[in-house]
Amino acid sequence: MTHELRLRRLLIANxxxxxxxxxxxxxRLGIETMAVHSTADARARHVRLADTAIxxxxxxxxxxxxxxxxxxxxxxxxxxxxxxxxxxFLSENAPFAQACTDAGLLFVGPRAETIRRMGSKSEAxxxxxxxxxxxxxxxxxxxxxxxxxxxxxxAIGFPLLIKASAGGGGKGMxxxxxxxxxxxxLAAARREAAKAFGDEQVILERFIEQPRHxxxxxxxxxxxxxxxxxxxxxxxxxxxxxxxxESPSPLLDEKTREAITAAAVEAARAVDYxxxxxxxxxxxxxxxxxxxxMNTRLQVxxxxxxxxxxxxxxxxxxxxxxxxxxxxxxxxxxxxGHAIEARLYAENPATHFTPSSGRIRRLRAPQKHPAIRLDxxxxxxxxVSHHYDPMLAKLIVHGLDRAECVARLRAALxxxxxxxxxxxxxxxxxxxxxxxxxxxxxxxxxxxxxLEEVLWNVPPPPLPVLTVxxxxxxxxxxxxxxxxxxxxxxxxxxxxxxxGTAGLPVRLLDAGPTARTAxxxxxxxxxxxxxxxxxxxxxxxxxRRSRTDRGPGPARRCAGxxxxxxxxxxxx
Length: 572
Prior knowledge:
The chain is an alpha+beta fold. The chain has four domains: 9-108, Rossmann fold, CATH 3.40.50.20; 137-206, 2-Layer Sandwich (Dna Ligase, domain 1); 212-455, D-amino Acid Aminotransferase, Chain A, domain 1; 463-570, no CATH class. It has 16 helices and 27 strands. The protein has an eight-stranded antiparallel β-sheet, sandwiched between helices. A five-stranded parallel β-sheet has the order 3-2-1-4-5, with helices on both faces. A four-stranded antiparallel β-sheet has the order 6-9-7-8, covered by helices on one side. Helix 4 (94-102) packs antiparallel against helix 5 and helix 12 runs antiparallel to helix 13 (425-433). The longest helix is centred in the middle third of the chain and has 17 residues, at 254-270. The chain is globular, with a radius of gyration of 27 Å.
């Protein structure tokens, strides 16, 4: 970094994958990092990677990662220069950003006032309307009586969307398709908004059928410069939570791309934006677009932008926070090829995607390649806690065009495996293999509409593949040694018996979305040619459990997996 840079020691007020990501950039730039952790994260990966670490409280987020006072106390005691909030937790908390500034710490993010204004969806839409940025027709006024909202809903027309004004992530959101559904949906949205955000205020918007979610990455510095780093599409969602993101958007043509990025720059300029931010738009199939909201932080999906631009967005954040101007002008920011990111969550598709916790016994990643990147917050042996967001890692791939990128994503997912906790790998593989995704035609409701069809549209692994895999595993099993006689036939431990009836069971877990139970393959040594015989159980829906699924012990069948039983026979 240049000699003007004020950041020499940085506290990362976050955990998991994003903390590890920030540490990686800081190491390259020669910045000393300090991690904070809860009691549950004392041995977490971000703690191991940081130069120093300090405990700030209990396992519950409110006692640690959401306790801004403790984090600032730790920063001042350690003598750091600044605080990076990552994303989630306190990253969009205006009082925390202001408290950092008041304490003399550089806050790696926008000004507190910008966070506050853009944190209110109603105020954000008013600001964008005044700036001439297209806004979805709707109501975002302060009058929140049930009668007034019902009146405005009738004027907007149905279907419409009720959204919590203070939040995001799908919480406090309801689609209303008829007037007689409005009162019940409004009450439910208010309850959910009050519980999640402590504010039951809502906004009403026209509901766009088959919408696409497109966002634009923006940056601003302290010298009045604002640029965009092109767009990302995040339409592959489940219940408003992003699953797969990509750049560039397969929906946009060059004319629309130019218009939407220009609108994003104007939106950022309207609030004199500083540091990294994202302007989110909703698009119709006809490529009309409207402002939805502004995220005043680094996004989870920022790596796809890094892959197509070749830039380090965390480095840009650090330089801008230190007072430097933007590293590049708009005309110098080029994009190359296509990038896709898949989020790997510890959640079980077989049980309605409930979070999964436990120890990661095995984590297999694709081989290192310039076009494949894994941003992980865990290593083998780490514990996945139920206290925090279940995201384990992000798999990002790059290709010269979208077709190559999709093919590389499929291959990379096939070479990714996690044992010890359930994950959404079956869903990711199924989506990547689906023809609608391959065609770039996924809208935000695709997975919610067609989840069952998506999960069951992937063929199971061929029986010969399972057979060879089981034989290879059986062959490589460790052999016991008989005391005093290593050549004894009793030292082989290969399942051989004089009668030729004993088998060596090998259980293979197929993570494919159409599989039913763990594979069980038995090897029997008997004279004669190698052959196999299999029996296949009828498939079941992955979220329905039969009586046999309820038994305890390691042999319990796993919902979402198919069972194959094969007997391998070869010369004895």
